[in-house]
Amino acid sequence: MAAANVNIGIEDKTRQEIADGLSRLLADTYTLYLKTHNFHWNVTGPMFNTLHLMFETQYTELALAVDLIAERIRALGFPAPGTYAEYAKLTSIPEPTGVPKATEMLQQLVEGQESVVRTARSIFAITDEAHDEPTADLLTQRMQLHEKNAWMLRSMLE
């Protein structure tokens, strides 16, 4: 789909590159949401209550984040991806196989949180160069939250 006629002081090609990066971020965020929600439903063991509640807090925040990311893509004048097929092509986060043990769930979620941070960081330079402060602000908030979540999840493994 072609870009909308958007004149916000960022060249079309640059807006496209930023939207493409945000589409990868959206795919990672949605995939992590789905994985976290899955683990919330299926976690068992002595840490059940703690992990069940922690996973719920995290998937709820991820559900809100996908909307923010998709809306930023739209504000840049491009369609936001919204299908499993598109997300499967764009995401860097692998789907789980079967139902892992609680500690493996934690490890996979740490890796997922860190993947989202890397994706966000990978597009930060172009947003900075384009003076796209709204996207840079969104990326900064996402990185801060995902780094904190990774730390909290990692702490459960020690």
TrEMBL record:
It comes from the Bacteria. Residues 20-158 form the Ferritin/DPS domain. It holds the Pfam family Ferritin. GO terms for molecular function: ferric iron binding; oxidoreductase activity, acting on metal ions. CDD domains: DPS. Signal peptide: none annotated. InterPro entries: DPS_DNA-bd, DPS_DNA-bd_CS, Ferritin-like, Ferritin-like_SF, Ferritin_DPS_dom. Belongs to the Dps family. This is DNA starvation/stationary phase protection protein.
